[in-house]
Amino acid sequence: MNGLSESIRGFFLTLSLVARTTVSNVSGHWALAIVSLIAAGIIWVVIQDIENPRVEGTVPLEGEAQGIPVEFVNLSPDFVVTEASRVRVRVEAREDQLPELRPGDFRAIVDLEGVEPGIPLDLPVTVEPADDTIRVLEVIPSTVRVDLEPVAEEEFEVEVNVTGSLPPGFEETEARTIAPPFVTVSGRPDLVEAVDRVEIDVNLSGQRQSFEVSGDLIARNRNGDRQTVTLSEDRAMVEFTIEQQTVERLLPVRPRLTGSPAPGYRATSIELQPSFVTVSGPQDVLEPLEELTLEPIDLGGATSDITQTRNIQRPSNVELERDSVRVDVGIAPIVCEDDQEAACGATTFHVAPRFTDVPEGLTVAPGSYTVQVAILGPLDELADLAPGDLDVTASLADLSAGISTVEPEVTVEDPFVVDDVEPLSVDLIPGQVP
After folding, report:
1. Which CATH number fits domain 344-430: 3.90.180.10, 3.30.565.10, 2.170.120.30, 3.40.50.150?
2. In the predicted model, is pLDDT for residue 425 greater than 70?
3. pLDDT (tens digit, 9 = 90+) per residue, 77-113?
4. What's the pLDDT band for 17 if we cut at 50, 70, 90?
5. Is the pLDDT of residue 7 over 70?
6. Domain boundaries, the chain
7. Mean per-residue pLDDT over the chain, rounded
8. Per residue in 389-426, is it b (16+ CB within 10 Å) or e — as a string?
9. Which of 130, 135, 211, 303 could share a disulfide with 92, CB 3.0–4.6 Å?
10. Over residues 279-302, mean pLDDT
11. Are 393 and 424 in contact (CB under 8 A)?
12. CATH-assigned architecture of domain 57-150
């Protein structure tokens, strides 16, 4: 076969060369030129039939479920075919073309001109290939049963099938506007009866302002599957009105401690997990909020660290990111001196200060001045300590008339230690120290 093909190719090339030579002198040899071209076409057909012969086959192949869908033409709009039909075809085509053929390459037609409903008929099917080089040899089956019945109709309200959700704080503030609000579904009675709703799908994810959306209308059954029916309108438009109704703020959480640790112990640290919580609500409610408070934790008599989960006291009309916070309170012994083994305690005194370095021409305005001082010391000696045992001085050097804040200095004898001293406000007025 290959040798024959090569021989034919050689003959064809030679004939083509002769034809080109003849055509070049076509002014005097019209008849010879036409004969040469006809001969070339015949040779091409011969080569095609040898190398890519025409063969017969079936579309679709045996065993494939889908066939060529039958179209019904000249069907009255008042009637519908009760059952869809499909056919197969036996065709003749080129050998390399046949495996590529699919149902979509053919059109199967049944003419319903003059057909009346009520009596089922077996009508012939005509199949037309999209490629006119393909020859249809047989339609399988050659006829299909056609039964007509009146078209069923039902009106449905258009519904919106919403997917996704608006960002936190955004809400629809008005009813959705849908156009058209109603559509008519028509088709086979069993299919129309199975329709549960007609919807337009809309995704609200990320929408932060009012918008309009246009989309396809879909008839669905109770399971949400699409129904093959005809709709009076294919598309719809939906208008959404969206506004921000709430705001968010990140507020600090403040713990509430009650009671005191056991004598000789004190709270050394407080940790919150988390220390900030997101709250959301109307803006006029959130704006004045500065912090969130927790249910109180009782430190009474504690000698070791305390870990508790406490609820956040929720302000009215707000939403919290979380309802509770973990609180870790560090409790440790009070240490007066590094080498002291006796138990320590703390006490607070209010001591009248001694003013020094009063500026010339000024004097301290009359009034009661006391300095709050926290003292650490051995428990067995701390009870005997008195305010008079503390020397509290407040230097007024370089101050001018008016109220000023000074840092007092406190000295106390061992084994006591100054733990904390509150600042003092002093009012200086013109005058001399008496």
Report:
1. 2.170.120.30
2. yes
3. 888 888 889 999 999 999 999 989 999 999 999 999 8
4. low
5. no
6. 2-51, 57-150, 154-244, 247-333, 344-430
7. 85
8. ebebebbbeebeeeeeebebbbebeeebbebebeebeb
9. 135
10. 89
11. no
12. Beta Complex (2.170)
* 3 φψ region: left (φ > 0), alpha (ψ -120 to 50), beta (else): alpha
Pick the CATH number of 247-333 from 2.170.120.40, 2.40.30.110, 3.30.1490.20, 2.60.40.10: 2.170.120.40
User: Is pLDDT at 115 greater than 90 in this prediction?
Assistant: no
Residue 23 has what pLDDT? Answer: 47
Residue matched to tokens 């006591």: 416
pTM (two decimals): 0.44
Give the C-alpha separation, 240 to 237, whole Å: 10
Q: Check: CB of residue 291 under 8 Å from CB of residue 272.
A: no
Bridge pairing between strands 106-111 and 126-129: antiparallel
CA–CA dist 80, 82 (Å, integer) = 6
CATH architecture for segment(s) 154-244:
Beta Complex (2.170)
Cβ atoms within 10 Å of 13's Cβ, excluding its own: 11
Q: Are 159 and 199 in contact (CB under 8 A)?
A: yes
Sequential DSSP letters for 88-131: EEEEEEETTTGGG--GGGEEEEEE-TT--TTS-EEEE-EEEESS
Task: Give the largest CA-CA distance in the chain.
Answer: 149
Amino acid at 376: L
22 residue type, one letter: T
* Residue 118 structure tokens: 């009520």
Query: Are the C-beta atoms of 111 and 73 separated by less than 8 Å?
Result: yes
Instruction: Give the pLDDT mean for 280-303.
Output: 89
CA angle 307, 308, 310 (to 5 degrees): 150
